[in-house]
Design brief:
The protein is 35% helix and 21% strand. It contains 12 helices and 12 strands. It is of the alpha/beta class and 319 residues long.
């Protein structure tokens, strides 16, 4: 992770959001700044993470879904800035020190390394891949967390877990997961109009809230050879899908107050697996309107549910 901060507290300008790419020794970094007023918490984006200038507010750390960079969730997460210091992970799986491996173990270590310096306890929240990684870190460091909120985790178990393992053993993970589709993702656009035209008409992106689609396009592509390419590299996305975990639910009962939220129109294995996870770990289980991508389809409705659950979890944990 690059250390690219100036001293943000000395800036005397009113700016809502600015982001750009810079090169340091031939390596590109994404840098952005966002604040609402001189008295509001200042958020600084550096390298592959976003963190907040220290204050008395508790930290809420958010980890993204596979292939969806963290700042795609800016509209969804923005209202939380008044109550939390936000730490948003930009993308996992791109650091060679933490390669994609079985059961997403190294990816969880990557997240753990990013959470380690944050003020404790933290509220952990993640979507899909990110929720599983938060869960794995919480298993190892329950004292770090006041609450854990898992948005549609792909933690296959029961018969679905057996079928996933069978697909892995027979080399069929590209058919059993979205890996096969991700292999063929378009990865270059000559201009921004092409970016907007492509994502505005493609599959799951058509269901995104328009603001979230704009967030995704800003976070999801990067300058490349006189055009644009995917910021979350397709080969990493494919590798992550191929290593979808099946062992996470066999871990000891979680010692952190936690909740799972399943999309009403998510694939049925997500619902059945979530029910088993909730029973085993004494988690709250709720249903959100929308598909697996519901945080980006219905950001306000999802946030209202999340805030309700966080209040319950923190009361349960004595926070």
């Amino acid at each position: 992770m690059a250390a690219l901060y100036t001293n943000p507290c000395l800036w005397q300008a009113r700016i809502w959001r600015y982001q750009t790419w810079i090169a340091v020794n031939g390596v590109g970094y994404h840098v952005a700044f966002a604040w609402e007023s001189l008295n509001a918490p200042l958020l600084c984006y550096s390298g592959d993470t976003m963190s907040a200038v220290p204050s008395e507010k508790p930290v809420l750390a958010f980890a993204h879904a596979n292939g969806i960079p963290g700042h795609s969730y800016d509209t969804f997460l923005a209202p939380l800035e008044s109550r939390y210091q936000l730490h948003v992970v930009d993308r996992v799986g791109h650091d060679p020190d933490y390669p994609v491996d079985a059961q997403w173990h190294s990816l969880s270590l990557e997240l753990e390394a990013q959470l380690a310096p944050l003020g404790k306890p933290i509220v952990g929240m993640g979507h899909s891949l990110g929720s599983v990684l938060m869960y794995l870190v919480a298993q190892r460091h329950p004292e770090w967390f006041s609450a854990l909120l898992m948005l549609d985790p792909p933690m296959m178990n029961g018969l679905h877990g057996v079928m996933m393992n069978l697909a892995r053993w027979t080399g069929q993970m590209d058919k059993a997961t979205p890996a096969g589709k991700s292999k063929g993702r378009l990865d270059f656009w000559p201009d921004w109009a092409s970016v907007e035209s492509y994502f505005g008409s493609r599959g799951m992106f058509r269901a995104f809230d328009p603001r979230c689609l704009q967030d995704y396009m800003r976070a999801g592509v990067e300058p490349w050879e006189n055009g644009w390419r995917l910021h979350f590299r397709p080969e990493v996305e494919v590798a992550i899908f191929r290593e979808a975990p099946t062992a996470a639910t066999r871990m000891p009962r979680l010692k952190v107050p936690a909740a799972i939220v399943t999309g009403r129109h998510s694939p049925s294995p997500f619902l059945h697996s979530a029910r088993r996870i909730a029973r085993r770990h004494h988690m709250i289980h709720r249903i959100a309107e929308g598909s697996h991508m519901y945080p980006l389809e219905k950001p306000e409705e999802t946030l209202a549910l999340c805030e309700e659950l966080l209040a319950q979890l923190q009361a349960k944990g004595g926070a």
